[in-house]
Amino acid sequence: MLKKLAFFFIALLLTSSFSHRGETITLEQAIKANQEQEVQKLIQLGENPNFWCHWEEMGLPVEGPILLWAIEKENLNLVQSLLEKGANPNSKNKHGTSALIKAAYRRNLELVQLLLKKGAHLKASNRDGTTALMAAAQAGSFELVVFFLKEGLDPKITNTNGLNTLHFAAGSHNLELVKLLILKGVSVQAKTRTGASLLAFAAGSTNSDMLPFFLQQGLDPHEPFDEGITLLMLAAGFGRIENVKLLLEKGVDHEAKDQAGLTARDYAEAAGHPEIVALLKTYHSP
Questions:
Q1: How far apart are CA 196 and CA 210, in angstroms?
Q2: Which of 76, 138, 177, 185 is spaced 20 to 30 Å from 22 by Cα?
Q3: What is the pLDDT of residue 57?
Q4: Running DSSP on this structure, what letter comes out for residue 206?
Q5: pTM of this prediction?
């Protein structure tokens, strides 16, 4: 009789929510509160491992399967529990970003390997054709890019916007990664669908050696991009003052206007970079 009562009380615990400090909390509430341990308990108690949920990343609202939330948190134990309970390793959010691509953005090789072991598609891409290799390059992860290259992913293929893996790497901080991709045969002359060269991406890099490196490859800093946007405008908008100074030394026109009539100084002012605004305001061409 006592055993039956014990099993009865255990069964009562196996509900879709559990008590937290005297209150009942649902899976959605636990996720929104970033209570990872409680989420883990709810999954173990039988909650849906493919639950579609809402959360925030960098202050912005995000929605998708719970597996992607767990990957964003880089919670290996929770990801493993979800997969063991039946979570789809090829889960995608509404933008088509798969669990594998999400793990690549997080620069997490351990999660990538776990997902592949559980059946994640290596060549999956999101809605604009961005792959896990491209995501790893954007994140500046040399380790992950090497891993994906060994797995057979092609660094030369492009997404729907015409960006290849080198474009993504050029905007990262990792110059050694850029050099690796060039050694793998990715051309420095590659342009996007709108005609943007690799300089457009290097202009926003936090690595002050990135833009000089691509300029040394013979790329033209004076070439305008789509809608009349110049390289100087991009550097100013990104707030990269060293890049701005370098481009001014290269003779890039600081008074040039895009199709909307905006100058590099306008870009810096709109993005909140007063030092660059002051530099461009007082600058006089030699």
A1: 16
A2: 76
A3: 87
A4: S
A5: 0.87
Q: Is residue 283 part of a domain?
A: yes
User: Which tens digits make up the pLDDT trace of 77-130?
Assistant: 999 999 999 999 999 998 899 999 999 999 999 999 999 999 999 999 999 999
CATH code, domain carrying 211 = 1.25.40.20
- Range 276-279 contact pairs with CB under 8 angstroms and sequence separation of 24 or more: 276/236, 276/239, 276/241, 276/244, 279/241, 279/244, 279/245
Region for 74 from its dihedrals, namely left if φ exceeds 0, alpha if ψ lies in -120 to 50, beta otherwise: left
Q: Are 107 and 141 in contact (CB under 8 A)?
A: yes
Residues in the chain: 286
3-state helix, strand, coil in the chain (%, to 5): 50, 10, 45
- Which element (helix H / strand E) includes 146? helix 142-150
Structural domain harbouring 278? 194-286
Task: Decide if pLDDT at 10 tops 60.
Answer: no
